[in-house]
């Protein structure tokens, strides 16, 4: 069987997904949509639409990859599911938690596959770290501490939808910090005690440019995160402390190559030592296979009618619920943007 595929949103991410799909022998992209397309002959080898709704309505596709702005993601996902189409949707899964609830209801008891693009789970350094945590080589997790930041919110100008709360739903935390929060949930989740300071005082838009977060779960595991759009040196750093050592993920391979080399430092505790210089092992990862691995995971789930365990609707709801609780835990931010909740 050949699966006919559409891509809604043909910007940088949509094109990356297309490159990965081309490597799947029984998946064929036949139609694209992008608001910048002027007519249906934009790319002659595909049916092209300027509106994703037309792509879904008029094309007989089996699968759709959605790379649309936050305020359109949930609408496109729900519309495709109602038409019986398997859906892969980029993060964030929606502009708000409430937008996901009809999707959850629609996919319930369905044979369709729905996956969200929490891409960092498929980076090789993260896969290795998860393996070490799961096999208890270094014991149980004690705490986590992360920093994920860049110097601005994409172009950061008045025409960029990411700076407009009505379109984006949030700023740097929802746009980029969501990846780090998802990894913290992935490694040791269930955070329910939350303290936060949310700021937008540098860029002065109505979305946050910095979020400082402290969380704890029922097992007493504490996680700390700084999500920033004023990190002039782009930074990805996640430290996981365990009973018998720690894992330090530094750098992550991206298209911009601005986050440094991707490494995993494995640190083995020395209970008898007192100099704070334990044995270390550094693993380096020189190739970003995450896009290919993620698409392969999704397409395998479709072929084999397998459950989505990474990027499921339940995980999407969990992370959006966590983000909204983080926003609301800052009383000033809650009063400004959530006073009617």
How would you sum up this structure, described in words?
It is globular, with a radius of gyration of 21 Å. The chain contains ten helices and 14 strands. Strand 1 (3-8), helix 1 and strand 2 (27-33) form a beta-alpha-beta unit. It is 32% helix and 26% strand. The model has no long low-confidence stretch (mean pLDDT 94). The chain has 341 residues and is an alpha/beta fold.
Which keywords apply here?
341 residues; alpha/beta; 6-stranded parallel beta sheet; 10 helices; 14 strands; globular
Outline the secondary-structure elements.
Layout: E1 3-8, H1 12-21, E2 27-33, E3 47-49, H2 52-58, E4 63-66, H3 70-82, E5 86-90, H4 101-107, E6 114-117, H5 124-134, E7 141-149, H6 165-168, H7 172-188, E8 191-199, E9 210-217, E10 222-228, E11 235-242, E12 245-250, E13 262-268, E14 279-285, H8 290-304, H9 313-329, H10 331-337
Parallel strand pairs: 1-2, 1-4, 2-3, 4-5, 5-6, 7-10
Antiparallel strand pairs: 7-11, 8-9, 9-10, 11-12, 12-13, 13-14
Helix pairs in contact: 1-8, 3-4
């Amino acid at each position: 069987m050949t699966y006919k595929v559409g891509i809604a949103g043909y910007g940088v991410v949509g094109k990356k997904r297309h490159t990965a799909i081309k490597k799947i022998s029984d998946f064929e992209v036949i139609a694209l949509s992008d608001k910048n397309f002027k007519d249906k002959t934009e790319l002659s080898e595909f049916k092209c639409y300027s509106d994703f709704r037309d792509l879904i309505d008029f094309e007989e596709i089996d699968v759709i990859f959605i790379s649309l702005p936050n305020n359109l993601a949930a609408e496109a996902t729900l519309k495709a599911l109602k038409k019986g189409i398997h859906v892969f949707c980029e993060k964030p899964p929606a502009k708000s938690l409430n937008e996901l609830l009809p999707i959850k209801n629609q996919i319930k008891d369905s044979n369709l596959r729905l996956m969200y693009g929490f891409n960092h789970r498929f980076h090789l350094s993260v896969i290795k770290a998860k393996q070490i945590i799961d096999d208890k080589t270094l014991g149980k997790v004690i705490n986590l501490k992360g920093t994920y930041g860049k110097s601005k919110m994409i172009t950061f100008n008045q025409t960029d939808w990411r700076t407009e709360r009505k379109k984006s739903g949030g700023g740097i935390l929802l746009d980029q910090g969501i990846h780090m929060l998802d990894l913290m949930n992935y490694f040791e989740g269930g955070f329910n005690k939350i303290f936060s300071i949310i700021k937008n005082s540098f860029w002065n838009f109505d979305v946050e440019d910095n979020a400082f977060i402290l969380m704890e779960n029922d097992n007493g595991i504490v996680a700390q995160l700084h999500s920033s759009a004023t990190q002039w040196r782009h930074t990805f750093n996640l430290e996981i402390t365990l009973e018998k050592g720690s894992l330090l993920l530094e750098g992550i391979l991206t298209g911009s190559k601005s986050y440094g080399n991707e490494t995993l430092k494995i640190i083995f505790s020395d209970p008898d030592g007192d100099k704070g210089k334990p044995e270390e092992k550094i693993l380096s990862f020189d190739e970003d296979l995450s896009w290919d691995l993620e698409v392969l995971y999704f397409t395998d789930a479709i072929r084999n009618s397998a459950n989505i365990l990474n990027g499921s609707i339940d995980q999407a709801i969990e992370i959006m619920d966590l983000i909204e609780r983080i926003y609301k835990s800052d009383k000033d931010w809650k009063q400004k943007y959530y006073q009617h909740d």
